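Why run this: before we spend reagent on co-expression, it is cheaper to look at a predicted model of the complex and decide which construct boundaries make sense. The entries below are exactly what would go into the expression plan.
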Amino acid sequence: MNQISYPVQARWIIKNIVRMAPSLVIMGLISIVLFPNFRFIALFPITVTALFNSLNFSNFSYSLDEKFLTVRQGILNKQERHLPYGAIQDITVQKDIIDRVLGLTCVSIHNASQSGTAVDKYGNVTQSGFRMTFIGGRRRRSQTEIVGFRGNLVHIPGLLPSDAEALRQALLKKMKEHGAEETGSGL
Amino acid sequence: MSNTRQRFPLSPKKITKKTIEYSIYYIVIFGSLSTMFVMGIGGILAEAFHFNFGIVILSALVGDLALVAIIVATVHWYQSWYYATYFYDLTPDFIIIRKGPITPREITIPYERVQDVYVDQDILDRTLGLYDVHLSSATVSSGNAAHIDGVEKETADGLKVLLLEMVSKKIGKTKS
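The model came back. Tokens follow.
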């Protein structure tokens, strides 16, 4: 059970380009105005976005090992995270409008790590409504979806719906085998 | 409709509450902007074509009423759809909550991960007698993501008791 069997589909990259479309168009127009002799510069924003997302996509991999969920990501900075199943709090499966058009689903896993800031699927820092803009999170509001882990969230977008369901079942099974760690509840 | 929803149903008053809440929100946003817009343009036209400014005010009012009606109708339609596709189920191992008519968002929480269950009401809930049942786990934002809102007192209590029971059973098992 890993990236090989439940892969992130390549067409996920289209999604971020579409989400960025308004700002890409504006940046393109601005660059045409600023550099009228070099109009090809207008293509730079879209190529940079596409390149950045393709690199993220190819450098991301996850696998469901015996005791941990291992997630690898990073273009220049290679990061590897081993998440014990006991620390996973909940699994969210969702798709937004562009996902529906492309036929993809995303799976998010929230974990209970103290070191993680609470993050949403675009990488914006949220903490039950109180938005911390300076400490440990992105400063501006981002609208492109992240792939991989950030803060207390592991986000795997761009899966086929059947794969997403299978991944969810596999994770739930693993979570059931490994009980919750440090249950703080008084029940 | 899941078994759980049959036993612990959502109240139809939820549609009313959400309609009121979002209608007020959109009316404030669109109403003020559109009224200012119409009055502005109308004023300019009245000057240019020399007709009574009273007509402008009257048409702005009529336009506002029509706008309010459209907003309320649209919001109500969407909330009824939302209510119909709202899904929650308590399986033996975990709880699933799925909301959203167009782009559903589904959250699955195993019972052992539930830290506490809390029930609250906002002002509109209080006037209509509705409650929200929240499940929080160790993540900070989870109380907002996993909740069943718009249930009546009996249902809220029933859900709360059942959830706490299932959670303590599960925790009891893993401890022993």
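The helical segments of chain B are 3-7, 13-49, 53-85, 123-128, 142-145, 153-175. The interface with chain A takes residues 93-94, 100, 102-110, 112-116, 137-146, 164, 167-168, 171, 174 of chain B (CB under 8 Å). Bring this page to Monday's planning discussion.
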